[in-house]
Amino acid sequence: MSDINQARQRVSILRNLLNHHSYQYYVLDEPEIPDAEYDRLYRELQALEHQYPELVTLDSPTQRVGDKPLDGFSQVKHEIPMLSLDNVFNEEELSAFYKRVKDRLAIDEPIEFAAEPKLDGLAISLLYKDGVLVRAGTRGDGTTGEDVTHNIRTIHSVPLHLQGDDYPTLLEVRGEVFMPKAGFEKLNQAAIKNGEKTFANPRNAAAGSLRQLDSKIAASRPLAMYCYAVGKVDGMDSVETHSEMLNHLLKWGLPLCKERALVKDIKGCLEYFEKMSAQRASLPYDIDGIVYKVNRLNWQKELGFVARAPRWAIAHKFPAQEEMTVVNDIEFQVGRTGAITPVARLDPVFVGGVTVSNATLHNMDEVERKDVRIGDTVIIRRAGDVIPEVVSVVPGSRKQGAYKVKLPDHCPVCQSDVVREEGEAVARCTGGLFCQAQRKESIKHFASRKAMDVDGLGDKLVEQLVDEKLIDHVDDLYSLTIEQLSKLERMGEKSATNLIDALEKSKSTRLERFIYALGIREVGEATALSLSQHFGSLDKLLAANIDELQNVPDVGPVVAAHIVHFFQQKHNLEVIKKLREAGICWQNVDVVNQGDQSLAGKTFVITGTLSAMSRDEAKRLLQLKGAKVSGSVSKKTSAVIVGDNPGSKAAKAEQLGVEILSEVDLNNLLGR
Asked: Most buried one in 30, 380, 511, 643, CB count within 10 A?
């Protein structure tokens, strides 16, 4: 087959592909491939048509803009055609564009450009007559679009009547309708909650919202619009620059992007591009590049147009944030709190400026909702510093042999049981004391003030101890030596001695503190106290079943299940055994009569210094009688117990009319 015939065949294939994906994207709002893939196909077709001009036809995707309007909308003809922009993807291509502009204008002086973010939304034309909005239309095929006036009128940022009194008798304004990131997230969260289909991205959501025949639906969507150019204008004094025209639009009450700027020469364009690249992730809306427009209008007129785009403007696209690749495997990672996260192992692909080979799938609900299987071709997204994620499976790409993954029964790190409570999206490892993935957090919690209260063992020191491989689990704390500690950064012999003394002191504790220190999920201070008072010993707690645990106040079926799962893990029991062998002990606990709940339903706040006991001890004794102890005063507070040198809580209690009690009153409440 000759070269021309091969090219003709490939051109036919590319046109069919581009027409299909254009229809999916612009008409049905159901894109099947990322923009970067569409751009590649488009540029390949452009290159072939440039090489073989005889293959160019009027119906080629390179010779038109957008797609046909939906049949459900009436059509609107633009006063001046809405053309698209050519794209550049790197500094070399931008420099070539700049050279073409200077050569055509035959000038040596630097050129000033109006630069602005390229919004990732839907192009719209607004028509104002005598200052009143009379029509709004989508780009459509560039000449004829869809009449979406009823939906545009619901966007609060679009004025229904222009401000001032010097606006033109006829003004055709071009802009972009988009959906801010926060509104998009909220919209998708609501869709998931209601079991409805979610949108792929904010651009898709904006397009879908504008193409609603019922304007009440569009009114409920968080749409916005920025204007960036004009079409036909009647009844206005001439202006010299594009930026001057934009300033007029702003004065007339039309919304414009605040990030727009004037830049000079190729250097200024590139500096603005880098600046916006750095800000991209933090912007409240999505952008996919930068648009540069020659600022002087007489130069724009002199430069003119090609078939589908102006010669005086260009879009400088960012590296693709979405790409296609294949899922080679799905593995499970364990987070620092025990959360089990499915991670897709991918064929490496360049996206968002880096090569990506892993992407998060968040949780099993997401895996099931998106139906991601090993072997699938998927779209992944990487925006800024956000962890790459799998967006969706490419429709029609699934091959035979692609198979589903199941949540593992055992932790891939420590082999403890994995549990996923009913109604929860996240599954968790139950080996909290033993699991290597969770060890830093478990040690920090174990040593905290309300747990074992190891003075001097802060978070940074825990990090050092684990990183230096001096400890693996909490029981290793009690094997540390002064010699080991004194070699650490910022740890002299004195500090090391103090820490060893603090560890020795922590061995004498209370049962409820030890239970709390274990870090059992949803077992806080109050629950730990209730468990210690109900069972009286750790051994009885270890032997309790779910039904017995639910006899403890405030322990329901979920918390009871967490406790049972924790103590069923042999690894956790081994660590507890080693802790007891290291010398951790507590006094026998008197089992409290659960009927002694005389303060149930009351909330107390303690402030100041008590003479006969610590505030922690007072809190514990109040909780034994069913009371709640809060750290802040409100109208719902039953009373504030005041010791010496009270803080602002006493003053707030007086202000709110909350009862104030002395330490004597506290002792009376406790029956002491």
From this structure: 380
